[in-house]
Amino acid sequence: MKNVVVIGSGISGLSISRMLKEVCKIEILEKDKSFGGLIKCERIGGNLFHRVGGHVFNSRNQIVLDWFWSHFDKEKEFIKAKRNAKILMNSNLIGYPIENYISQLPEPQLKAIVNELLDKLSNDKTNVENYSNFKDFLIGNFGEELYKIYFGPYNTKLWNTDLASVPLEWLDGKLPMPKLREVLLSNILKSEESNMVHSSFYYPCRDGSQFIVNRLSEDLSINCSYNVKSIEVISSNLLSINDGDKIVDSIVYCGDVRQLHKIIKIDDSALNQAMTNVANLISNGTSNVLCETDENDISWLYLPEDKFKAHRIIYTGNFSDTNNEGTSRKTCVVEFSGKQDQLDMINELKLLPGNLAPLSFNYEANSYIIQNQNTRKDIAILKSLLKSYGIFLLGRFAEWEYYNMDKCIEAAMELKESNFFSK
Ligand SMILES: Cc1cc2nc3c(=O)[nH]c(=O)nc-3n(C[C@H](O)[C@H](O)[C@H](O)COP(=O)(O)OP(=O)(O)OC[C@H]3O[C@@H](n4cnc5c(N)ncnc54)[C@H](O)[C@@H]3O)c2cc1C
């Protein structure tokens, strides 16, 4: 059996470790004091706090679903829910996605949007190939008015970057790409969203995504509070971690690819150049506040307006009653882009609906990855150079892909299928 170290205990590291544990000797090294990465949660006075987001699970890939459900009892351990997302605009709740609910907007906006969409119908350029950046794509697909009132402000807040600088390859396959005819028909037929991966989703009956972490980590050897600071080659087939502390045949790295140039010490100019090329990629952090809230039946509330600093509220207390064990009210997570001052966030909560009362705060520096025009090519080159040393990249920040949990599992499956580990 090969000795393999997996660096990082998020969903990517846990998944690949489970997939390889029958054919390799696996140890997971995690720099944090507890495992789970972005999907770990904690209890605050009995209430469940998703420290990042409000993780729900689904996948379009049947093989991923089969693998996932082989670890859980879908009927007994999970709740299946329908997404009930809304957008708060001018103090009104509008359906989500907004393009399917333009009939709920005030008449002047509605008229402007419909006129633009009708003009575009004769010249339907909804395909990604027609645009070079995200901003042009959004305006080209939905028109200036919808861009002005929703897509522009919301996405600028979320990504904290100039949308004109975002290449479209990044979003291809990640966003539903509606056709204009479908948009207009959806409004007339009042059809509900259905083509999004999370239009219905699964959520654990207890402990949210921490439940997933706990189950997937069973029987795995995980070494927490272990920061991998150096990786060297000591012979043609062996790798040394942290100055000889661990000697292994192979490494799966699920950490931040931008840090690799500081960690990997191999005398290979092409590799060093490839690591330097990705060292300055940009990511966006999120500040999250666990709050008590008044009751509602919403799952996600989007906040595009500039008057709010927060960009969405995730009503995690509605996902499972067991998330609200420390309060007679419900709980939710208010998400802000970037690092926010705690006092500013407390003041902001007063502007938002639901009589929000803060219970706990978290800042996560690495939440959203931002690709540039070269990222995919640069990562592919780096991957192929690292492979020759037995080092593999896996996960959202190692591959710099906008992965959800299911995509991390799918990427782990592809890595396992590469057969490197069974030789
Ligand atoms: C706001 C938000 C909401 C989301 N909502 C959903 C959702 O509802 N559903 C869904 O499916 N997905 C969702 N996602 C995506 C999901 O969170 C990610 O796809 C997934 O958690 C990424 O897992 P990962 O293992 O690749 O990375 P991570 O979870 O970041 O794990 C990497 C681990 O590596 C460790 N590490 C890094 N460097 C080192 C080192 N040098 N030594 C040791 N350890 C190291 C880190 O501490 C970390 O634990 C959301 C993401 C965000 C940001």
TrEMBL record:
PANTHER family: UDP-GALACTOPYRANOSE MUTASE. This is Protoporphyrinogen/coproporphyrinogen oxidase. It comes from Flavobacterium zhoui.
